[in-house]
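Narrative progress, year one. The postdoctoral researcher (J.K.) led the effort to move from monomer predictions toward full complexes, under supervision of the PI. The following entry was the first complex the group processed end to end, covering 659 residues in total.
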Amino acid sequence: MAASVCEVRNLTVQYGKRVAVDGLELDLHAGDVTLLLGPNGAGKSTALSAISGALVPTSGTIRIAGCDLATDPLRAKAKLGFADQPPALYEFLTVVEHLEFVAAARSAERGEVDRVMTRLQLTGIAQRPCRELSYGMRQRVGLAAALVGDVALVLLDETLNGLDPYAARSARGAVEEVAARGAAVLMSTHLLGGAERMCQRAIIMDGGRVVADKSGEELATLVAGGAGALEELYVSVVPDRGPT
Amino acid sequence: MIDAAKLRHVQREVGRRSGGRRRTWLAMLVTGAAAAAWVATAPDGSAASTRWLWTAVALYAVAMLRVPFVLFWRADAALLARLPIEGRPLWGAAQWATGELAAQALAASSLAALPLAVLAGPDAVAVLGRHAALAVALAFAAAALVPAVAVAAGALVVSGKADQLLAGLGGEVKAPPTAWLGVLPGLASAVAVLLAIDVGGWLRGGHAEVGDAVLLLAGMSAASVVAALLARAAADRVMPAMLRDVSALDRQQLATIELTAAPATLRALGRQLTPGARLLLDKHARLLARRHPMSAVLGAVAFAILAVSALASSHAAVLQVTTLAVTFAYAMVLRGRMAQPPVELPRLRDSLPLTPGDAQAAARTYVLWWWGWFALLPGALVLARTAQLWQVAPALAAGTLLLVLGGGGGRATAR
């Protein structure tokens, strides 16, 4: 098994009396793409925010590439790319200026910006201000910002939503590529169709807890069962109780 | 690696391209020129100096109240919080930005001071020197002291002591710990402004107070520099943590999570309204303090100025009426905000069986409740102690009457 890039232990996030994430235990390995699934309000975005350091958990520890996020946040964040929803962009900078800023923060080389822009087909809009971008283009710039530099962990919060088929294919390719370079990817999505073909692991959360965790042969068998197999698994472990 | 110069460059570019920087400079210079015209038409030098003092107080108060927004409540907080950027460069870039705020106020107040040279005649140099000393001391406070207090407030939040203090206050005080990032700098601004007003007599040539005034202004400037140096040491830990908390509050805890129910006094007022208006009032109570934290900060500053001036002097009518006027102006702004998205979500409201009258009644009640706490309550203390009742009472009564009779807050509903 590949080395663990991210170790989450007993992660709990509470908003007042409401427990959004309840004792999450997670190990993410180099080269793996892990899908994080679950109904609205299951705690996926909160878990991703906490793992990214954007939110202080109520309790628990998070280690990224060996660095404790609470005590050594700078080194941990240097190894982390996070595309959240909606992506945080400098509205009055151009796409290339925004990505250069992110690259500089991660001490990445200038060539890294060219690489991700080419990979995600952003070169045509490189000189456009971020404020003029459509929803899908903003998603792609957010993904590019998460992938730029020598990141060991990539967190994507519904980043593939709103992309046209070509852009979605290009984005999936970029995610597989960063995983092939040795990064661990944790990606929340509701679009199971394309995502199930690229993942090595699928985790389903409900009520702030992990209710299913499939990987390896078990997942391969499931996915080989045909399109919609992951959706069947989801339906079997998450009761349809409407919004909570 | 991002350093302060790189951050500063990005901030300047964003300000230049958005036009915000140019507009702010222009607005300050136009204000300075208008104030100069007001000062020039004063009947004598003493009145001119008083008019300049109020202008300077207003200009620097605005600059100081903008400090938390430059440091923490900034548009790029979410992005900066996610990147591996140390606190020192964040503080360094913020110092440039607060320095620019102070420079804008200094430029405008200098422009407003020009007529004093003409009115003072042979004493022009001495008169301008005294006014310049006050303006520079206030500039130091805006550029260094208030930002340092904001960082100290951040340290309070990071250490968790803010939570304990809020818990200790109990009662109706329900706010996220990050509210301290606005409240403490607001109080520091109020102290700086009150000290500036205190040396008003010296500005007009009161010789007996020369030593005290010079000491006060020199002390304020020196304290500002020392505070900024101390804050620099704490900034490494505080700045990234505060940007994270502020952006987390905006993105993660918005509306659906960190909701606080209407306090008892507002609920009591709400019981006098129609069910539709009560529903909207409840929504205002849940969202407005969160969406417009400045309402609490400005209200607290107004409360402090009115209460302290009432206790300190029975002849502070000009300050008290000015404070009431500014508070009233903000109350009107607050009422206007209630009609704007995303707070009101007019389309949603239009699809519900709520009348424009309900919206107006809810907005009026909320603003009157706010006015009651921050103007009427300290205003009662002012009325009890002032010797200038005929100046303060009409201002308080007129403000209250206008808020009771005024419309607004429901325009977006009427299609």
